[in-house]
Amino acid sequence: MTQQDPTSTDSSQPVLAIVCQTVPPYRRHVHRRITAEIPELRLVTINTHQDKSRDWHLEDAADIGLVNLSVAQTAVGSGENLLSRLSISRMRSEWRQGGQTIDILENHNTAAVIVNGYNDLGRIRVMRWCRRNSVPCFLWGDANICAERLLPPAKKKLKQAFIRHVLGYVSGCFGCGRYGVEYWEHYGANPDTVFVSPYEPDYTSIQQLSQEYVDSVARQHQLSSDRRRLIFCGRLIPEKRPDLLVECFLALAAERPKWDLVMLGDGPLKQSLVDRVPQELTERVIWIPFTNKQDEVSALYRSCDALVLPSDYEPWALVINEGVAAGLAVVATNVVGAAVELVVDGDNGRLVPPDNQQTLTEALLDVTDPDKIDRMRAAAPDRLADWQRRGDPIAGFRKALESVGVITGS
Q1: Could you tell me which of 274, 267, 307, 266 has the C-alpha nearest to residue 290?
Q2: pLDDT value at position 52?
Q3: What CATH class is the domain 203-388?
């Protein structure tokens, strides 16, 4: 069966176009599910940006109808400062890219559009085109309500006015979970037009890794089979608070002599964190560089016992989904979007307030208790199954598309 050119004119089947920033493995997984589970529509994925720090191998993404417009564009949040994003040249580039996206939409029988984010002129231009042409358009975002409560009054008022304006262009919104739904409703979205459609990894690929492969990755990184391990996975940046985790581990290391800490990732804090670890504990804190090989990351999860994410704020945090799928207990802050959906405090892990070393240390001691860790890990499959029932992204997409008559209920 030959692959269809996603940029060609094809009036034989209505198109669902998704305008997104970057195409990491989890997005590709969900888009593949769309092609399989929403057969009424043909998917066209329009990628507008790329994360220069990661290579997601976009060359082989024809199976999700990829059109890559990301040349010279960097994903928002990957290191750009505000002034560069507001430069005249950047805004002109975004406007032109919006025009390119519209050309693609006009070249198809476009039935509906989903726009990932609202933070550039190109996206606003696309949403306006949809409204003028009576094409249902949905806004997808991974923000959650927790950070909004901390905004200064002037910034909150300005943001509220802007988002209310943007919401006037769209038929509805997608949030990753309860915090995402609260975010859109806080800014004026009609609750009847807000749908749950979260980030989701390929759970099966995590769960079905062979034990032989898991063991080989553990040996590669010198992870002994007779040790138990906490793991942090993410960028080593201030917002994710790897510094707090390292301090907590140093505080409990003597009380938990059979436990080590794996720090998986890179970032500006790395060297300062390495320098904090005293000589007598250097063999118990293992530093593993970032890898874009998802199977290797999953094997590292499965070589550990508990995932820790002490972030001050995290819109969603897909690592929570991955960790629970790998059968780990989880310790995370209660402002992390995925954590409040997949972690039940005291059951499969602990939820703690952010920026509290004492509470985090107590939670880590609780999870690493030899009488509790295996019970918490055993609870992971039920917590994941419960979330998959409540937060299936394709179910959310179908409900939204049904609400505007693009598809009918099954």
Answers
A1: 266
A2: 62
A3: alpha beta
| Assessment of whether the complete model's pTM goes beyond 0.85 | yes
pLDDT digits (tens, 9 = 90+) for 344-368: 999 999 999 999 999 999 999 999 9
Distance CA 335, CA 352 (A): 9
Please say whether the beta carbons of 169 and 144 come within 8 A.
Answer: no
Give the bridge partners for 228, in sequence order: 259
Helix (H, G, I), strand (E, B) or coil at 220: helix
The domain locations on the chain are: 10-201+391-403, 203-388
Strands of 349-352's sheet in order across: 285-288, 259-264, 228-233, 306-309, 329-333, 349-352
3-class secondary-structure state, position 118: coil
Secondary structure percentages of the chain, helix, strand, coil, to 5: 45, 20, 35
Answer whether 10-201+391-403 and 203-388 agree in fold: yes
Burial group, residue 322, by CB count within 10 angstroms (0-12, 13-18, 19+)? buried
Q: Quick: pLDDT tens for 89-133.
A: 888 999 999 999 999 999 999 999 999 999 899 999 999 999 999
What is the distance between the terminal CA atoms of the chain, rounded to a whole angstrom?
27
Nearest to 13 by CA among 390, 353, 383, 407: 407
Tokens coding 316: 């969603």
- C-alpha distances in angstroms, 75 versus 162, 327, 338, 382? 21, 31, 22, 35
d(CA 394, CA 37): 7
CATH 3.40.50.2000 fits 10-201+391-403, yes or no: yes
Going by C-alpha positions, the residue among 143, 99, 151 that lies closest to residue 125 is: 99
Nearest to 364 by CA among 268, 232, 265: 232
Separation of alpha carbons 17 and 45, rounded Å: 6
Report the alpha-carbon distance of residue 407 to residue 111 in Å, rounded.
Answer: 9
